[in-house]
Amino acid sequence: MLASSALIAHTTKLDLVIRHVLAGLGHGIHAGRERGAGVEFSEYRAYAPGDEWRRVDWKLMARADRYFVREAERDSHVAVWLVLDATASMLEPSRSVDGLTKLQYARVMLACVAAIAQRQGDAFGLVVCQGERAHVTPAARGPRQLQRVLAQLNGTDAAGTLPGADTLRASLHFSLSPSVVCVAGDFLDWPSPLSDAMLRLRRMRHDVRALCLQTEAEVQASFDPALAYRDPEAGEGVVRFGRDVRAAYARNREAHFARVVADCRQNDLPILSARIEQAPGEVLRTWLRKAVRA
């Protein structure tokens, strides 16, 4: 079970990890995209790294001595938006997989969604929520866009708190067009500007899917009582997990996530809770199956 999670922890090459995670994953993000011979041919373009070889026109290559890829008209105008919570709490590490954090796991999940969107021919973009800004990579199609998104994910560190409501509202400009919105975070801050944006997008009938990432230690309240812990976002005081503190933590955590789930259920917004120690391929498969019927 830990092999794939360990791979996330010990490699900085997202393209390598997503190839490993996506092996055998047989479905896309959403229905409604026509593929194959039934799609009307539109134009040729030059081959770019990441394009599927089956789309290369070999007869044209023989004449032109260059690789060209067949583009097709697309019926679906749905864009895929990836939203990453990159606040300080996402630096929380696994206590059983050395070097693995919630941020690393979230980056891989969103990178995999980006790779699937690129394979489907969808436009996709990225919003990184951190501090006073929301860093936006505008939506586009193709392998070069995938490299841009992977580079942005690779270069993202966790720090600070969530952007304010006005900042997020200005950044989520895509809300006027049909979108699939995949949000990965730990949702320890709820309600929040991010949760308000998610619920608002869902009420606007976008397909919003949330991935709530936790560590086994958080779920089981199994923190080492000999160590002192500090809230990385509040930064106030330290806590040791003695018996009384552990019991209170477990009660508060259960109440908090019960509210998160209730708010999502009330708005028909599917949310998947996963531990970062779980095999990422299985988590991704389950998350993508949680489609919203608008």
Give me some keywords for this one.
single chain; 294 residues; alpha/beta; Rossmann fold; 2 domains; 6-stranded mixed beta sheet; two-stranded antiparallel sheet
Q: What's a quick, concise take on this entry?
A:
The chain has helices at residues 2-10, 14-22, 58-64, 102-120, 143-154, 165-171, 193-203, 216-220, 243-266, 280-289; strands at residues 41-46, 68-72, 79-85, 123-130, 133-140, 179-185, 207-214, 228-229, 239-240, 271-275. Residues 31-41 have low confidence and may be disordered. It folds into 2 domains: 2-31 and 76-289, von Willebrand factor, type A domain (Rossmann fold); 36-72, no CATH class.
Helices, strands, pairings?
Blueprint: H1 2-10, H2 14-22, E1 41-46, H3 58-64, E2 68-72, E3 79-85, H4 102-120, E4 123-130, E5 133-140, H5 143-154, H6 165-171, E6 179-185, H7 193-203, E7 207-214, H8 216-220, E8 228-229, E9 239-240, H9 243-266, E10 271-275, H10 280-289
Parallel strand pairs: 3-4, 3-6, 6-7, 7-10
Antiparallel strand pairs: 1-2, 4-5, 8-9
Helix pairs in contact: 2-4, 4-5, 6-7
Helix content: 25-40%
Distance between the termini: 35 Å
Fill in the CATH topology of the largest domain. Rossmann fold
CATH architecture of the largest domain: 3-Layer(aba) Sandwich
Structural description of this entry:
- The chain is of the alpha/beta class and 294 residues long.
- The protein has 2 domains: 2-31 and 76-289, 3-Layer(aba) Sandwich (Rossmann fold), CATH 3.40.50; 36-72, no CATH class.
- 38% of the residues lie in helices and 20% in strands.
- The protein is built from 10 helices and 10 strands.
- The protein has helices at residues 2-10, 14-22, 58-64, 102-120, 143-154, 165-171, 193-203, 216-220, 243-266, 280-289, and strands at residues 41-46, 68-72, 79-85, 123-130, 133-140, 179-185, 207-214, 228-229, 239-240, 271-275.
- The strands form 3 sheets. A 6-stranded mixed sheet has the order 5-4-3-6-7-10, sandwiched between helices.
- The radius of gyration is 20 Å and the shape is globular.
- 35% of the residues are buried.
